[in-house]
Every structure is written in structure tokens, then in C-alpha cells.
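User: Okay, second chain of the day. Same drill as before: sequence in, C-alpha cells out.
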Amino acid sequence: MLWGGFQVIEGAPSFDFFKALQNLIKLGFLNGLIENPLADGSNVNIALIDTGVNAVKLQRKFDGKGVNFKPIIHALFKPDGIVDYSSTDSPLLPHGTVVADILLTHAPQAQIYSANVFDLRSFTELDRLLHAIHVAIHDWKCKVINLSLGLPEERLQQPWRRLQFLNALEDAYRNDVLVFAAGHNDHPLGRSFPAVFESSLFSVNKKLLEGMLKFKYFPDAGLEFLGHGHADLAPLGSDLATSWATAHLAGTAAKIVSLYPKIKPFEMKSILYWVSREWYEQSGCDS
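Assistant: Same drill. C-alpha cells below.
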């Protein structure tokens, strides 16, 4: 089957980036990528490094829509370096469940690996984040990593600790892993790690956009993309959040990865740029 430059043979996507880019410019990125029925997250592993996921709550929501998703793999990262796969308790905080809902809404056939680095607390530490990133890259073989929760700048003052974080992101980049990180909700007054390392990942700010699939390349004080900052399962009365915006963009990327599994980070940035540009040129709006 040939669709927008993607040739799918016996269920295995094959993609020539430069040829497909030319075809997609002619056909349109929206029809060739985002609206492609094959772009459902199939064969894409996503690491959700967050507070844990309430799979029962998600199952109820998606069952009501007639959507089946793959069982979520749960992993609790402990301070002693142990990864506990036996914990299925509902997380104390709903944050990770909201993010998982957004990811699965975009890419319902993706495999979600839930890396709980918070346990029963409202904060985490760098070492747990680094461990989860390493496992996501080298053990789970994830193509997409969603980091909707990071560390505020004041908690990462030591230069050598920042370098550790950067090294982990460069490891992901070298392995063609797409890392999506949320900017600080008070950006640009506040900064958050790892979003400040925008050259080696996808850093995302929030905005209320016309549709949840909308996003925009909009460099602003160290963040590169604007994403739709709303979430269906977010607590009532909650404001727009970079966490939700990041998941919207990561979910969109997972759709594209299901068509082009060997895409590299810089190629994905190029495609996301052109998709968002096409949207806003068609709407006649550049804001």
C-alpha cells in the first residue's frame, strides 16, 4: 500500500525520508501523515516517565469508545536502583493517568511503559529520572519518551548534575529516541530540566489551540514547540499545562513513528515543523 510516500509491505513500514518528503510536500502533510489510517501507534513503544498510571480508569474510558489498547506495563523505580514490575497499585497522583490518556488518544495501538519515578510522593530526584531514561532506551527499546514532569532549575544547581542529565539525553539522541519534555508552567519566568536542553529533545510550551491535534513550531526563550494545553481527564478547574501540551505533541509523533519507525530526531523536528506550518497557512492564521 502506498500512502503519502509511505510504502507498507507485509505490515512493515519502509520509508525513504527525502523521497517521501518531496511527495508529502505535494500531497500535503496532513493527509499523508496525521490523517493516515495506518498512523495509530502500532509497533511504537512509549516510555511515560511520570507518577504512574491508573489503567482501570483508562480502560473504562476507552471501552466506552470501543477502543482497545495494549496492556500498560508498569514499573516502579525505587531509590536503591531496583525496578519493581509487580506493583499494580493505583498511583497517588492522577498526573500520569492524564498523560497516558492523551498519548493513547493519539496513538491507541502504542505500547505504553509506565515508569513511576514518584512512588507515593509529590516529587522525584534526578537519579530516578536518569535510571528510567536508561531503561527506556536500552531495555524497553522505546522510540518515544514523554517527560511531562521535570525538575525545576533551583533543584539542579550543581553543574555536574546538569551534565549528567544532558548526557542521558544525548544517549537518547544517539539511539534515535525522541524525547519530549515539558517546559516550566511559568515559562519564561521559570525554567525546567530537561526542557532547557532543547537541541537534543522536543521542548514544549502550552497554549489553548483550536483542536487537540494542533501544535506549532514557535521558538520562545528556549522552548521550541507550542502544544494544545488541555486534557479531558485533568482535574476540574485546572489551567492549561505544559504537561498536557507535551503529551499531545509526543502522541502525534508516535503516530508518525508508526509509519516511519526509523525516523531520527532531527527528521521528526522537520516533519513537525512542516505539519504545523501547513495547518496555520491553511487557516490563514499565524498566531
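Confidence is low (pLDDT under 50) at residues 1-13.

User: Thanks, on to the next one.
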